[in-house]
Amino acid sequence: MMSLRDWCRDILASHTEGSCPAGAGKDPPSPAAEAKPNEALLAPDELEKQLLQVQKLAAVGVLAGSIAHDLNNLMMGISGNLELLRQAKEPDAASQKYMDNALDASRRAANLSRQMLAFSRKGSQEVKSVDLNRLVAENLELMKGSMRKGISLSVRLEPELPPIEAEPGKMQQLIVNLVTNAAEALGETGAIGVSTGVGELPAAEFTWSRVEPKPASGRFVFIEVSDSGCGMDGETSDRMFDPLFSTKAAGRGLGLTAVHAIVKASGGAILADTAPGEGTTIRAFLPAP
Known about the structure:
The structure is a single chain. This protein has helices at residues 4-14, 31-35, 44-88, 96-120, 132-143, 168-184, 234-238, 255-266; strands spanning 128-130, 150-156, 164-166, 189-201, 218-227, 269-274, 280-287. By secondary structure, the protein is α+β, with helices and mostly antiparallel strands.
């Protein structure tokens, strides 16, 4: 069986031997152009690295979807039975807090399965008109209880924000993952800011977008989440959306990957501003009608 390295070299050779190179029949390149290395072709080792990365992402996607499907079914049963048991007990029963803890843990596990489904793109729903402001307000209200007491949360929602066409579940995952990432970046104390906005933006606005391809000029709504955490250096920032990459002890490396997948599928963009000691701000842009 041919090795991946040999296959890479065959692919590379097919573009350099016995084939008509791009620009054949045109004027020969200038000496200056000939002096430059051929940037259109990758070295075999680099090509192999990229192909291995593609294989890795594909394998992780399949694994995530499979685990998420089974985990989601299990969590539905566990959460449902815990809720019934909780309702059957007296409100002041000593076991109430333990049931509440178990129910909270099952909800967190269900949230993890939704992140994995978003990453594997198997959790598709019907596209509908979505009020992003309403989703932000509802999810923040639910998340407040799980945040550390020393964390302050400020919210600024654009009152004239137009609805967008999107999958409501994916938008919920986008919000929850961005806020969860911000909360995990903080210690016992800190601040999180969440805001929404809308505007006609030129393509140049997305020059530093973390999503490819970068969108053209148009009208976009955005959600911005900032934290006062420790921030990231350049190397860490470059990998922040990579699958299974996390610098946090409790991190799983799926949250921001899911955010990236959701925004990419929408045709949007992501801008991230971070530096050591200066916190992190992530702004996700979504096309608006």
